[in-house]
Amino acid sequence: MAAYFSFERMITTGFVKVVYFLGFLAITAAGVALAVWAGMQLNDARIDRMLGWQYVAAGVGLVVIGNVIWRVFCELWVVMFEIHAELVSVRYGLNLNALRVREEPVEKEAVEEVVRPREVVVHNEGAQHHASVLGLS
Fold first, then answer.
1. Does residue 134 register a pLDDT over 70?
2. Contact 68, 95 (CB under 8 A)
3. What band does 136 get if pLDDT is binned at 50, 70 and 90?
4. Which of these, 69, 70, 60, lies nearest to 20 by C-alpha position?
5. What pLDDT digit, counting tens, does each position of 22-50 carry?
6. pLDDT of 115 higher than 60
7. Are 31 and 59 in contact (CB under 8 A)?
8. Which of 8, 21, 31, 25 is nearest to 74 (CA)?
9. CB contact at 8 A, 102 and 109
10. Which element (helix H / strand E) includes 99?
11. Dihedral angle at the C-alpha atoms of 17, 22, 27, 33, nearest 10 degrees?
12. What average pLDDT does range 11-30 have in this prediction?
């Protein structure tokens, strides 16, 4: 339940699929209705012949091309939410929550200890030299 309220678990993917199906039905019904209406007008000779066939073609085009465009649009939304899901799984897989920035102030001594390079003892023909990790001394 905490993942739901922190938006780490998305419910929109299922919602997009429902919206896609409803849009598919609406686009298909509109295209078929336009083609049938134009066909009936042509049959009764109430509309110019060329305009009637253009309406029939537009109805068929709406069914085919309109549904393809609608599918691509909805797939883009699903892909965005799937990318989010993969990023959340990577975060938990790599335990990136532990790497988040702390909000409490950090003591100055702790910062200096992290920044200061460690010294390494290098043995060179019996002589000892102190060198840093980077080799600068």
1. no
2. no
3. low
4. 70
5. 999 999 999 999 999 999 999 888 889 99
6. no
7. yes
8. 21
9. no
10. none
11. 150
12. 92
Collapsed DSSP state (helix, strand, coil) of residue 28: helix
Query: Which position has the higher pLDDT, 15 or 24?
Result: 24
What share of the chain has pLDDT > 70, as a percent?
64
Q: Which two tokens stand for residue 27?
A: 């686009």
User: How many beta carbons lie within 10 A of that of residue 66, not counting itself?
Assistant: 19
Q: What is the pLDDT of residue 70?
A: 96
SS3 content of the chain, % helix, strand, coil (to 5): 70, 10, 25
DSSP line for 53-91: HHHHHHHHHIIIIIHHHHHHHHHHHHHHHHHHHHHHHHH
Sequence-distant (6+) residues with CB within 8 A of 23 are: 70, 74
Structure tokens at 53: 């066939």
- Burial of 68 from C-beta contacts in 10 A (0-12 / 13-18 / 19+): exposed
Q: How far apart are alpha carbons 46 and 85 in whole angstroms?
A: 55
